[in-house]
Write a structure and sequence with these properties.
With about 250 residues, this protein is an alpha/beta fold. It has helices at about 5-15, 25-30, 55-60, 60-75, 80-95, 105-110, 170-180, 195-205, 230-245, and strands at about 20-25, 95-100, 115-120, 120-130, 135, 155-160, 185, 210-215, 225-230. The structure holds zinc ion (ZN).
């Protein structure tokens, strides 16, 4: 990041009261987590599109559960990186803060974020297909799949699948926050999925200062006030040290 960009960032951040951060797969990739899309997501010769859908689950719930459990074990062995830690520190610093993540791996809550919306759900949670109860899956490897709820019905991973719509309450809570945010970061999102693009455009419309922190130019980059062509793990700690004088918490 050059000095002029850093100075602009520091000026906006030091005056910001309300800050939102949107994160996508790039954030997790820096912790060594595959995107589970395309060739990156191959498992037993299945493509993710063949497993992450209501139809696939209906056809073979045990197979879908095994795939999620394989992914979950990868995720549990990964650790949040320095970029995750800065996003957690942001929550402590700004009077109003919201993290909206597309990532289902739970690395943000593990880094300490509590004010967060997991817009695609969480791989560490299950949801009953009948009574709707949600439960944490814990750290142990699950056997005896597919998982059942206490009510006896089949439970499913609590994630948003291909062909499913977002939880409307979570989406409207995200939009409400973005409507009054001073500063919005879009981090590690390729723009392939339209929700960050949509949310970022709404925030810009409402007057937020938009920061695009991505190694590559994305579809929504043209809406952004400042573009940083780097990764979260590389750029966020230097920004944070400059803002806070070296303190990370
Ligand atoms: Zn149930």
């Amino acid at each position: 990041m050059n000095d002029s960009d850093l100075n602009r960032l520091l000026k906006v951040a030091s005056q910001a009261r309300s800050v939102a951060v949107l994160t996508g797969a790039g954030m997790s990739r820096e912790s060594g987590i595959p995107t589970f899309r395309g060739a990156d997501g191959l498992w037993k010769d299945f493509r993710p599109e063949e497993l992450a859908s209501p139809e696939a689950f209906q056809k073979d719930p045990a197979l879908v559960w095994e795939w999620y459990e394989w992914r979950r074990q990868i995720v549990l062995k990964a650790e949040p990186h320095e970029g995750h830690r800065v996003v957690a520190a942001m929550e402590q610093r700004f009077p109003e803060f919201l993290l909206i993540t597309q990532n289902v791996d739970g690395l943000h809550p593990r880094a300490g974020n509590e004010k967060l919306i997991e817009i695609h759900g969480s791989i560490n949670r299950a949801r009953c297909t009948k009574c709707g109860s949600r439960f944490d899956l814990g750290n142990r490897m699950l056997s005896d799949l597919p998982l059942k709820c206490d009510c006896g019905a089949l439970a499913r991973p609590d994630v948003v699948w291909f062909g499913e719509s977002y939880d409307s309450q979570l989406l409207s809570a995200s939009l409400d926050f973005l409507a009054s945010a001073d500063m919005v970061w879009v981090i590690g999102s390729s723009g392939m999925v339209s929700v960050p693009v949509y949310l970022a455009a709404q925030a810009r419309e409402a007057g937020a200062f938009l920061v695009d922190l991505n190694p590559e130019e994305a579809e929504f980059s043209r809406y952004c006030d400042l573009k940083i062509r780097s990764t979260a793990g590389a750029a966020l700690p230097s920004f944070w040290n400059a803002l806070t004088g070296g303190r990370t918490e």
